[in-house]
Structures are given as C-alpha cells and as structure tokens.
User: What shape does this take?
Amino acid sequence: MERTMDAGPDLAALAGAVGDATRIRMLELLMEGRSLVAKELAFGTGVSPATATVHLKRLEQARLIRSTRQGRNKVFRLATPTVARMVEALMTVAVRGPRASATPEPLRAARYCYDHLAGRLGMGITDALLRQGHLSLRRRAFALTPSGEDWFEAFGVDLAPVRDQRRQFAHRCLDWSERRDHLAGALGAALASRVFALGWVERQPDSRGLVVTSAGQRGLRRHFGAL
Amino acid sequence: MERTMDAGPDLAALAGAVGDATRIRMLELLMEGRSLVAKELAFGTGVSPATATVHLKRLEQARLIRSTRQGRNKVFRLATPTVARMVEALMTVAVRGPRASATPEPLRAARYCYDHLAGRLGMGITDALLRQGHLSLRRRAFALTPSGEDWFEAFGVDLAPVRDQRRQFAHRCLDWSERRDHLAGALGAALASRVFALGWVERQPDSRGLVVTSAGQRGLRRHFGAL
DNA sequence: GAAATGGTTCGTCATGGAACGAACGATGGA
DNA sequence: TCCATCGTTCGTTCCATGACGAACCATTTC
Assistant: This one.
C-alpha cells in the first residue's frame, strides 16, 4: 500500500505492532509483574513457543519490550515506563461504559500496573502519602518532601539507588480501573517491592492482581490509616 | 483462536480496531481538526470511498469515533476526549529516539491536538496562563482561578456554555512533540476556537499543523508576553 | 558426556481482511 | 424533474500473517 510519507511519529508501524490479540495480551501480562520469561508469555497467551518467539521479536523490534538472557531463559519486560503509560491509556479506552463495573473486584482492589501498585490499594497509599505531606503534587510528577524522605527511609526504602535510576523518579500514573492517578516511576516501583518484601501483598496464584495479607492489613492501617 | 476469557478491559478488540495503518491514520487525521466528512478521510488515507466506509464503520463500532449526518454528508469526530488521550499516548511512544528531532518544525510549533492547541504554541499559552495566575494546577486537571475567569471573559470566551458541557472542563493533555502538558478539555477547546476566530492562527493548507498570523504574533505577545 | 529444558528457525497451511469496481439508494441543487 | 454528489452494499481478488510441528541450537543439570 503506497502512501505519501506521514509527518510526525510513525503511528502505522506502532499500530501494526500493537494491533494483534496475542501481542497486546503479552503487553498486558507484562503490565502486571516485573518481567516474564518467554515460556510464561507463550502459556499466558495460549500460544505455542514457536509463535511466541515471533511475536516477542516483533514487539522488541518495535521497541515496546526489551529482553535479557538469564541462563537458558530469556526474560522480557516493557521497554520503558512510557510504554506502560500507553498500555494504560489503551485500557482506559477499552473499558466500555456498561461493562465498566464489570472490572473484576480483585483487580479493582489491588494489582500491579507495570511495576508499581495500582488499583484502590495503590491509589489509597498515594492519597495517604499526600495527606501526610510526604508527597506533593507537581505538574507531571509527585515530589518527595523532606518528611517524605525520612518516611521512605524509615519504611525501609534506600533512596540513593532509586534516585540513580535513569527513569522518572516519582511519576504520576493514571489508573484505568479507578480513573485517578497513583505513584509510579522509580519511587513507586521501590515502594511496591518493599511492600512485597514485607509480605504485605501476595501475587494471586492464577488470576491477575494481588491480595493483601493479614499482616499487610495491619501494616497498612498502621502506616496509612484507613485506606 | 480460542482463549480463556480475559479479566479487565477487552484490549484485544480495541487493539484490533486500532491496529491497521489506514484506521490509525484516520484517527490521526481526526486529532488535528474538529471533524471530517467521510470523503476527506478516504482521500486523506489514500483509499477508495468504499474501503473508507468499512474502516469507519469498524472504528465506530469500537466506539472510537462518532458520526452525524449533515445533509448528504456524514461527518466524523473522535468519540471522546479519552480517545484523544489514547492516540496522544500512542504518538508519544511512536516518536523514536533518533528520529525524535525529525518531528517537522510546523508540527512542533503549533498544531491542533483533537480540538485544542498543542505544540509549543499550546504549551506556551498554558505556561503563560499559569504564570499569570489565571490557571492553577490540580491533580488531573487545571483549575480556573478567579482572575482567570475574568481573563477568559475579557478575551471573549463565554464561560457559561463551556461549563455546561459534559466533558472535563480544563483537562491536562500530554503532548507527544513536547512531552509536557497543555490546556485541554472544554476550556482548552473554547480557547482554541476563540484564537482561531480572532484570526490569530490559520490552518496550513495541505500539511498538518497551524501557522500563526502576523495579527496573531502581535496578539499573543500582548496577552502572553514572549512565548 | 548424556539428558532435559528453553528458545529459535524453517516450511507449510489456512484464514482473515483490506482493497477495488460496479451497482445502488439518498440527498441537495439547478 | 433531473443531475450531481455522497455514501453504502456486494462480490471478488489477493496478499499478509498468525499458527503449528518438527528439527535444530544452547545452556544447565545429572
């Protein structure tokens, strides 16, 4: 199909890469947890390893995902937080009016969005941090206040390496299930893995989404009050 | 292709609708100006009217666009500002690193994003309004200050009907060419059409994007200082 | 080294769907 | 009333590509 050259970003190429049921499902899977190996992505999309290889290669060429070898495994993750934002925007549109309330309860309650906490849990924590003056609002991001620095360190998050990452520090991410934004970026990811390390949340076995443990209930209440 | 039911939004359906070169181009065209008739969209994508009909129907079924009959014409527009946000997010990702600076100058400078001003012009105006205290920042939106209300009325924007619209009043839209956000929503659209009505900007004949007229240069400087 | 596992490559198949031209219904203007 | 224009419908063609199994490397484990 010949066509005059397009000004601006090459949407057609991107749309081609995104516009396949299996590939978008892969991106969706990568939104939930940090990174997955090829086999998990094949299984998760219900497709043979051979087919998965092709799709993953295509996604990688489109710079939507990145891979690293680990032994005989190949682990994939979203290429950039910007990609996560894009997928999030797609999800926001994909939630149809009448079906909007059909978003499964566990997903509304707590889930990963890329590498940070989302759903009502992520939102609640973010709101609490704002209320307590540990975060403040900036145009496109949150800012960590002095009291916030103390709080994070006391919570067990070593901030130095978090600041050293090349990605945005405290990004604001818009959630498709709640339509409000929550803490993302390097700081959001660090917070999420700390909460995970504390055993406050656990990955749900086969479904997507997270469950808050009873220790988590207590801990969250102690730190953030009623969420 | 049988597959277990997906939790959450139906991304596959959406991805299918978006993932075609012609259809994404149509969405792109609808981002620039308010609304277009079927023929313009056919011509703009280099496709026959028959083919265009099929694509437009598909996009409409996916609720990405909406149409109304006007005489023997059928005019299309993006269904919701949320869709515009999604396309914008796609564009942001589609801008490749090395090619980033290859974004054509006129598009960087001034263009429509859906129905409001974007590019450096939209950003500059937004910044000026913030600096002058006519807008203030909220979490997901801008807020119009009391002085801002006066300013808009003096500028010739009747705010009452703008507030009555069902869409968000002063949304923050992230720009793919500048990677910063600018005034959108009902207020952004009203401002854009006022600026257009004043003859300060004109649609570029065949390219995309806008040009600032000499009257516009003067008017913008007078109201906003150096942009 | 052999066996097991993860991933890739290759060849093939089948299907979806994108495109067109032609014929048709509808609307508006002369 | 008649013509021009706009859009839709239909039938057809044809190509892209998504899927698989089998064979093939590479790495770890025993």
Observations:
- The domain at 11-79 of chain B is CATH 1.10.10.10 (Arc Repressor Mutant, subunit A).
